[in-house]
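2 proteins. here.
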Amino acid sequence: MTENRPLADRVAVVTGAAGGIGQAVCVDLAGRGAVVVAADIRDLGETAGLLDGDPQAHRFPLLDVTSREETVALAAQVEAELGRCDVLVNNAARLESVSWDELDPALWREVMAVNLDGPMLMCKAFVPLMRRGGWGRIINVSSGSVMQPIRGSVAYRASKMGLIGFTRALSAELGEDGITVNAVCPSITDTPMATAGLRPEHITAMVARQAVARIARPEDISGAIAMLISSDSGWVTGQTILANSGASFL
């Protein structure tokens, strides 16, 4: 480990890595020396290009986080090829934008499957690798929207609040293994998923509540995640970090 590559010899698995925050996290962690496993159900060509697409250094598997078979298979692949997993960033998400009256049970279950079941399945698959190494960092990407009573996206907000509860409970289970578990709640971030369907005046109103009056960039959120992954954060676990530029929710 060197000063400018603090994650050298670490292996990081990131879901939802094809774009947005997940892609920014991959680039950030790779720059800090980690071997990155960038996973997504979507094409990862753009992320691979940003990481130079070196198959000897990084991996770019297609993955459905709602599938127990696929998550277990990925963990087995990571163990066979890389021998370890030190960091897991559960970033894959599904955002539904329908009113309460339009929300049906099928859509509710689909959103929960990605946003809440997915992190649980990934942790089930990868925690054994972390335990063997006696060190681990799990970051669950929740959402600052759970703090805002805004109409729409009931299933999304419920799943992301559930992810905070999962984070706190899991931290108590894994602390003795040297594994920390934390959640990051981004403010509205300039990604296609976050801004799709939002009216400009809605974005303006949210940004006005922040200390820094601009929409977040994916790199702003990846920096907060990297902070929780660092070796200096070993005494920080079970926490929910609001990466929202000091936004107030009144």
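next one coming up
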Amino acid sequence: MGWGRPAVTSLCLLAVVASCEQARSSTPAAAVPQAKKAIPKPKRPKCLARSLGELRAGALPSADCDGEGRSCEQACADGDALACFERAVAVQHNSATRDKAGAVFARSCELGLAIGCTNYGAELWMSDREADQRCAQQLFEKSCDAGETWGCGMLGRMLLDDDEADPDQVEEGRTVLEDACDELGGFSCRVLALQLERGRLGPTKRSKIRKLLARACATDDDDSCGAPRSAAATFRPAKHRAPRADRTHDP
């Protein structure tokens, strides 16, 4: 497949995921105070998908942690995946430390939290390095397999936003999004609506796009709510929030 780099400058992540058209589109607008303790210098870890065991979607046990403070940082260091995720979100939303968030998302991913893998993958997707983009796809696949709708949505986007995609790749992207929307709902339905609206999957009726956004809203994708005028409009930066690691993805 061709490796189309997203034409944006910033995820939450959700994250993932900040630019309106990419995973970073999930980043809340509010900044957080400067972290009190030094953040580890980001590295380019090898693709975590090759060494990951079973990933879990939804919540993992966590300390009372909002991403800041020594106790939260310690909880992450001690192996609390959700604490690492909350820490990474705080680091990412602080302009002074934003470029260091990837290493903390990677730690959350390594500890088994699917949404952490999605966000780390979104960081890698924006890299110029082909190896990083290949790793991003592996992470999205692993996260999606764990039942994490943001991972499925990002995988579908990666496959369909590629200008060099052949018909088989386009069909794969369609299948990923349709299956995830049917089974999980949420963000994957919104991405499917976006791709249909763009004409990437052939002609469609506006009523179908509205139904997909309504399903996304009904299954915890708040950015799809409020009768948006288009699927594309839901990807504006002001409308995005960080995906919650403690949210379940029921059909």
